[in-house]
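explain this chain.
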Amino acid sequence: MHEKQILKTLHAQKGEYVSSDNLASKMGISNAQLSDEIQKLQNDGYRIDSSSERGYRLIKTTNRLLPYEIQLNLTTKYIGQEIYHYSEVDSTNNVAKELAEKGAVEGTIVIAESQRRGKGRRGKKWLSPSGGVWMTIILRPDIPTSQAPLLTLLTGVAVAETLTHECGLDVGIKWPNDILIGDKKVCGILTEAIARKGGLDYVVVGIGIDLNVDVDEFPPDLRKGATSLKNELEKEIPGEKLVQNFLLNFENLYQNFKEGQLSEILNQWRSLSTTIGSTVEVKKRGGTIRGEAVGITRDGILILEMDDGSLRKIISGECTHYKR
């Protein structure tokens, strides 16, 4: 339980040694307990040099998305202040729903290093190997259930703006839940709202970002339409800073959303959209609809202009772009 405090102290020393006695005293533990805690951190991938005379110093951090690394410089008020970390889960959304049912507070995050059964929209499997950001946020907004889909759009804006700012990439959003670099998917979002008789109980928002994933190892049918930040930038990306900035962007947008500042968020989404202005085909259970995407409503519903000039609203479906 002392890992975060130890790391904070070692980080603050900027590579200089901290004496064992001082560090143990600050933590309120014995030198033997301190040694055990240091060993745990080393097992997690941190390079920490130890000297019987000089103490401990941090040489290199890990690029694993561990809670104490994410929270070390996190400036949010509540999003991400409670983190549940797992090496592997079936689905972070499923774990988040279990925690929400037990009363987990708003802003709680579930993050995993890999998922066995990551979920996409409409029951599709989402490939989630090590090296990605597989994360779910628990929210408890006081909104009508009908507004829950807007949280997908809000999250898309937060992801797109984070990747643009942090990575300098040309990022776009494909309605309703895909983040693209060029015409390749780098992130998917899955929002699940749980409603009771009295209204909306809670929402879990799942975010899957192909961070340092090796796309060449994807199955051939997925490889063509997917990319990763590592693939685009040709280098490994520090995950904790990206997640920290995403969480802050998300919190700011979510606060605006709860305060009724919806128009600004929708305008941001429209400016990032690769769907609006494209000819699209939307697969629904009842068949396929094709038309030109001309906008979205205040409820996040896609508006298509049909060949005869009529307008049609599409609440949900699998969207494919054909041309700009």
Summary: The chain is about 30% helix and 25% strand. The chain has three domains: 3-60, 67-272, 279-323.
